[in-house]
Amino acid sequence: MKTDNNGVAAWLLQVDRLVNVAIGQFELIHIIDEPDYMSIPQAPDYCKDVVLWNNNIVPVMSLASWLTSCLQVDNTGVVAIVVYQDDQGKHKFGGIKLSSPPIQAKVNNSQQCQLTDDLDKWRKVSLSSFKSKTGDIVPIIDVSKLFSQVLLS
Amino acid sequence: MTDLKFKNKSQRDDVRYHVSMLSFAGIKLIVPQSEILSIESIYELESNEDNENHIGVIYKQGIKLPVFCFSKSMEVYKTLPEDRFQCVVLQHENIMFSLLCYEITNAVISEIEFHNLPICMNNNKIPLTHLCLYKDVDNMHKLGMVTNTARLNEYINKLK
Q: CATH top-level class for A10-152?
């Protein structure tokens, strides 16, 4: 990630009305508005859809569903396409449903903080966390882990 | 020409695949055409009086076959929806059962790319073998859900 005096560039993704997460600047590669989903029968509620993007089959995560264990959540239809490396080092694509368009931010070391108990669920898929300017704790997502089998266990 | 063979890796082939597309509840399952034994009228369906997961039975070659009816998410329907007009009999080795569909169409697909189910969603409950990318008659890329009789049978057995 590119660093300057203001910190490291990142994207803030609002995945629920009250929840933001962050990913690295170069992990977000595209935004799709109102994609055509294909729902996969019997897939987990938080990852039941795939989309066709640039001739790739892309699984789409609803982190709001995962957080609330509820299928019906308040997403806008905006999907962030992210890139990550799988276990074999191959580039793969994933989608994350958003509640609003992503925002660029700078994050520096002084903002680092621990996840509180109410955010414990994020430990499975986060690299670290920081306190935003509004005082919210924002998990920094490990995108490879998010699209691995870790949420199934 | 080649019957649909399922591969364990993403791959684009130039061979032509004979497939059947089973449409119901807004979804379309792609199965090997060689596993379609017959298509029966819905009027052949005898309703099920037992408390079973299947919606009824049909008789094929003197054998009583269970008929299953699924929702979009492949949950079992126990009452007949209005949009099921055809009853497809699937057979593979000694497995034979029937599914109620809205429509069954045959296709020959020349450009198809098979993909394993994404690992982040593969909870071993999904009644599919693969996802696929193929080109439709208008040369447009389409997403598809690939399954076969054995995989569907495995899914049905877990419902019991």
A: mainly beta
